[in-house]
Amino acid sequence: MTSANTVRHVACIMDGNGRWAANRGLERIHGHLASMPALEAVVDAALAEGVPWLTLFAFSTENWSRPAGEVGFLMGALANRIIDNSLSRFHAKGVRVRMLGAMEGHVSDDLVAKIRHAEEITRGNAELNLTMAVGYGGRRDLVHAARALAAAGIPPDDITPEVFAAHLQDPDLPDVDLLIRSGGEQRLSDFLLWHCAHAELVFLDVLWPDFRAEHFRHALEVHRRRRLGDVAAPRAAAGGGAVVPKVITLPGVMALHLTGGLLGTVRGTMRAAATHLGAAPPPPGPPPPPGPPR
Ligand code: FPP
Q1: Which residue segments constitute the domains of the chain, with CATH numbers given?
Q2: Binding site, residues?
């Protein structure tokens, strides 16, 4: 673990592309297309903030079962938009590119060769280690380590956390200090299970195509405050304080209020109708959701 002001490794679950597109009446691939500026922004923000490790969850093992057109589009985006278009920019900025996960058997040999080439030419860069997790699953990574330990014939008593970590797919990847997930969901989704053992988790309501440097900086600030023991600060800010941009929290708070109000009204109407008809009233149901965080 690092001190409050030092964040060595930030990992991002880039979620919400599909919803961003659906909100505009567009196909999902338009959301993926619109996510490219966010990807550039998060890399630039990590460089500007001096964060040396950034890992982006671009595609999970489960994502291979998405419609072939969407998978093909994403792999094309990886080849054309990220490697062909952005690689020289990343290289000039001192970014070392690495891939994590298993793509072989799912993508063309050309794409695999392109990725290996990108890893090779950026190998000497040290400003930022950018790891793209593609075809990645945390459990798969743990199984990979267990198999490697067994294959190496390591005696059980010699297996320490350090020895185990050395047999994960990328033994260089440090523990995650801060995990950011966009899109409003609050799940790990099988991402970096080993590395996130002590990570701060920051979930943002912003959809990934709208993610920018300010969101990255906000997450760093939440992490810093929590590490300083100022536990109440991020929660207080979410209720309208100065730290969280209102644009992030307002829809969530409104949805919470509306849901609570609507549920109460529906239950009241059912009870009144049941009383009127002489039937047993419906059960009270779960308590309404809590109000906005204070
Ligand atoms: C999750 O949003 C996002 C993805 C599955 C893809 C993320 C990919 C990029 C940001 C572009 C780079 C691509 C590669 C492969 C390097 P979702 O589609 O699940 O959104 P939803 O939750 O709103 O449906």
Answers
A1: 9-233+242-249 (3.40.1180.10)
A2: 15-20, 28, 32, 60-62, 64, 66, 181, 187-189, 200
Contacts of 19 (CB under 8 A, 6+ apart): 31, 183, 207
CB 104 within 8 A of CB 135: no
226 vs 218: CA distance, rounded Å: 12
CB atoms within 10 A of CB 208: 26
| Cα distance between residue 184 and residue 65, in whole Å | 23
> 3-class DSSP state for residue 133?
strand
- The 8-class DSSP code of residue 78 comes to I
State pLDDT tens for residues 37-60: 999 999 999 999 999 999 999 999
For residue 106, what are the contacts with CB-CB under 8 A and spacing of at least 6? 64, 71, 75, 135
Phi, psi of 2 (to 5 degrees): -115, 170
Instruction: Give the pLDDT confidence of 16-43 residue by residue, as tens digits.
Output: 999 999 999 999 999 999 999 999 999 9
Q: Show the ligand 1 pocket: residues with CB < 6 angstroms.
A: 14-19, 28, 32, 35, 39, 58-59, 63, 74, 77-78, 82, 132, 134, 183, 208
